Amino acid sequence: MATPNSVGPxxxxxxxxxxxxxxxxxxxxxxxxxEDFHRNLEKSGRWEAQRLFIWEVMQLARPSLVRNPFRSIHxxxxxxxxxxxxxxxxxxxxxxxxxVSPFLPGPSNRLVVGLSALGQSATFLGLVLAxxxxxxxxxxxxxxxxxxxxxxxxxxxxxxxxxxxPALLSVVYAFLLMxxxxxxxxxALLALCGFYVWHNVRKLGVQSRPFGFVPVCLxxxxxxxxxxxxxxxxxxxxxxxxxxxxxxxxxIGLVEQFKTEKKRYPLSLQELENSLSxxxxxxxxxxxxxxxxxxxxxxxNVSFSQWQHMAVDEEIVLFSKxxxxxxxxxxxxxxxxKHRVKxxxxxxxxxxxxxxxxxxx
Length: 361
What we know:
Permease_put_prefix, membrane, elongated, 60% helix, single chain, transmembrane, 12 helices, 3 domains, alpha+beta
């Protein structure tokens, strides 16, 4: 038979009490709880004593006795300087600008497509970066932990390695598509950023002040990238599509003018430009490289393309007076958008006569 000294209160509820009670008074109140428990144990037995102990613990869970969960956070939040909040804002604005840059008005530039893909990759990197940021913040909230500095350095190193993967791919992209000069510039920029990160990661193990804005960004940047991926790219791509279609209408008007004068469609844009002695309209959007034209015995097509999510989905926007589903098979030519759209996994009406757009992977 268990003696009073060998029976203790329910361990789960005792641990719960120690967790929620204010540390400044937990020892005194726990002493009173234990005295009441042993008194009830001798008087009423084990089960009644444990029941009364649980009831007393539940009664103690009131605001005047519960620890302040924000006390340690308040202690650490003073580390966040105004410059940290400024950097957080700048980083988020730059990320958003990178993601939407291919859909903004301006001269055609292939670099913006790579920048957009790099910004959108933060969504998937967040599967690693967000837990790292959450753990980092948790360690920062644990004031007075001697191992916190070492843990920050380890977590920062993990985050740096993860971020370096798409950064290195961007350098390769710059070399392959932008040329040697762009590749060298991208490599130099990556080297400078890498040195800055390495220098600050080393300091995390010894400095008393946390690297304030970094864990916040590790949590929020993937969220912003996901938000842009789901809610922003659709509207801005529709905007850029409309701009390019308006510009294409100018080109279509010139083609029709040529047909009126020559009784046929021009064989190429070069012939159109030379015959009418006009400068042909170009792409009005940075992420659209050119306006394409093709003519055959069935009519003519004007098209352009822009890259959507992660620069993986290509959107081909096509003007054609002929019904593409009834056109004669003339063989497949990958250079012709009217052939490429036959492999599209989705197509949509562009709400303009003779216009449709297609999504290809």
